[in-house]
Specification:
The protein has helices spanning 3-19, 21-33, 42-54, 108-124, 148-156, 165-171, 228-240, 283-304, 323-336, 355-361, 386-404, 408-419, 424-432, and strands spanning 59-64, 66-73, 78-84, 88-89, 102-103, 134-140, 180-182, 185-186, 195-196, 200-201, 203-212, 253-254, 257-260, 271-280, 307-314, 348-349, 364-365, 368-369, 372-373, 382-383, 436-441. The chain is of the alpha/beta class and 444 residues long. Bound molecules: zinc ion (2 copies). It comes from Haloferax massiliensis.
Length: 444
């Protein structure tokens, strides 16, 4: 396709988004006003569905408990645009729901604005029918890895196998025919109009640890007890003693918390529970670090002569961004936002996202875009530039998809990149291998 023709399609897409900018912003605020946690995003899904239906799209719902998707255009190359539905818990945030503590302090409402905005741009303008591929718009449940007691209940009931919504979409086969995947994410502490598009992230294992001892009167007869809190403290310190063996390039992060530390101060604690993640830059490094962390945790039980149970659950896979799509994205960012909009370098970020799982199978992008003040998840996180936060990212993704889906060479390059990635079964084997329960008993 000629450059002129591509430029004309992009102009139509951007005009269609500008024409509905106020509506996109109002939608983002409406989602923000009713935050819902993962796998509970019923109202939020309905809000997205009603806008998809306004575009005359056929919508499928309940992808993984919640969630929705709609496909537009034709051709056997499929590009997915994703938006995360869920909020997180931070009761100290001024916009938190007073009952649940849920709040959009990770900007997922901006992702949904981006999702519907991209649909307004590509479908509302009619441009999607001029492309050599289809675009699937997907509202995805449960990105934040939290509220885990609830999710373990879903898991035990057989409603889900994985805590992450994108992992569930993969397991259920929704991702099988995707050739490319695009989303955006609110940049942390990024009020200015800048974009970081080319980077990698850590993967992780999630961990529940239970130390069991024997209760006893803490004053009259502590010698008859086995102190599970002492076991936990020894275990945690043994974890800290592993840190000098973690290689810098693996970006290992281990950050345990105690979730139950004892029940009454005059009783020797008989049961103490902890949660942790073990994160690292590659699947192999996660597995290595996790093995030494589990050994260290067991040492706590050995030290006091108690029991330990360690339940490991798959966390998220490391994210890798796709060069071809990033190159288009950056070019559009320079055109639309400004020549200095794209930050230099290809950083590694030690946080994690289940978009990482998607990029293990499908070439994709997960750019961090500006317009947000305060750190993501923190109480002072807020939007300071509504156009940048809610409207411009939709133009960037829509124009990137125009570039990709009008270029046979680029589509071939992305397909080639996909051929080198994992298939669904290989992915599922890798993720399932991280689900283990280890129990050790050191009773006298
Ligand atoms: Zn988050
Ligand atoms: Zn997020």
């Amino acid at each position: 396709m000629t450059d002129d023709r591509t430029a004309a399609l992009k102009a139509r897409v951007c005009d269609a988004i500008d024409a509905r900018a106020d509506e996109i912003i109002a939608f983002a605020k409406d989602v923000q006003a009713e935050p819902e946690l993962g796998y509970k995003e019923v109202k939020t899904t309905e809000k997205v569905v009603s806008l998809f239906e306004d575009l005359d799209l056929d919508v499928e719902t309940e992808l993984a408990i919640t969630g929705a998707r709609a496909r537009a255009g034709s051709g056997d190359f499929v590009a997915a645009v994703l938006g995360e539905l869920d909020a997180l818990v931070n009761p100290d945030h001024p916009m938190a729901d007073p009952e649940t503590g849920a709040v959009h302090a990770c900007g997922h409402n901006a992702q949904l604005a981006h999702l519907v905005g991209t649909a307004f741009g590509l479908v509302g303008s009619g441009v999607v029918s001029d492309l050599d591929g289809a675009v699937e718009f997907v509202a995805v449940p449960a990105e934040e890895y939290l509220d885990l007691d609830y999710r373990r209940g879903l898991l035990e009931a057989g409603d889900i196998e994985f805590f992450g919504g994108k992992q569930e979409l993969i397991r259920r086969g929704y991702v099988d025919d995707w050739d490319a995947a695009a989303m955006m994410h609110a940049g942390s502490d990024t009020p200015e109009r800048t974009i970081t598009s080319n980077f990698s992230t850590n993967g992780f294992v999630g961990k529940f640890v239970t130390y069991r001892g024997t209760e006893a009167h803490a004053g009259a007869a502590p010698e008859e007890g086995v102190n599970a809190l002492n076991a936990a403290m020894l275990g945690m310190n043994a974890v800290h003693a592993q840190r000098e063996r973690f290689r810098d390039e693996d970006h290992v992060r281990v950050h345990p918390i105690i979730t139950r530390g004892g029940d009454g101060v005059n009783v020797v604690p008989a049961e103490v529970t902890m949660e942790s993640y073990v994160r690292a830059a590659s699947v192999e490094a996660v597995a290595d670090a996790n093995e030494s962390v589990n050994r260290a945790l067991a040492a706590g039980a050995m030290g006091v002569g108690g029991d330990v149970e360690i339940e490991d659950y798959p966390g998220y896979m490391p994210l890798r961004t796709d060069e071809t799509i990033v190159a288009f994205y950056d070019e559009n960012a320079r055109d639309i936002v400004g020549p200095d909009a794209v930050t230099a370098g290809t950083p590694h970020l030690s946080g994690s996202t289940d978009m990482g799982d998607i990029t293990q199978l499908v070439p994709g992008i997960h750019p961090w875009t500006g317009g947000f003040e305060g750190a993501v998840h923190a109480r002072d996180f807020r939007v300071v530039d509504e156009e940048m936060a809610y409207v411009i990212p939709a133009k960037l993704t829509a124009c990137t998809l125009v570039d990709l889906l009008t270029s046979p060479e680029a589509m071939a390059a992305v397909r080639e990149a996909k051929a080198e990635k994992r298939g669904r079964e290989e992915y599922l084997d890798a993720v399932r291998s991280l689900r283990t329960t280890t129990t050790e008993s050191y009773r006298d």
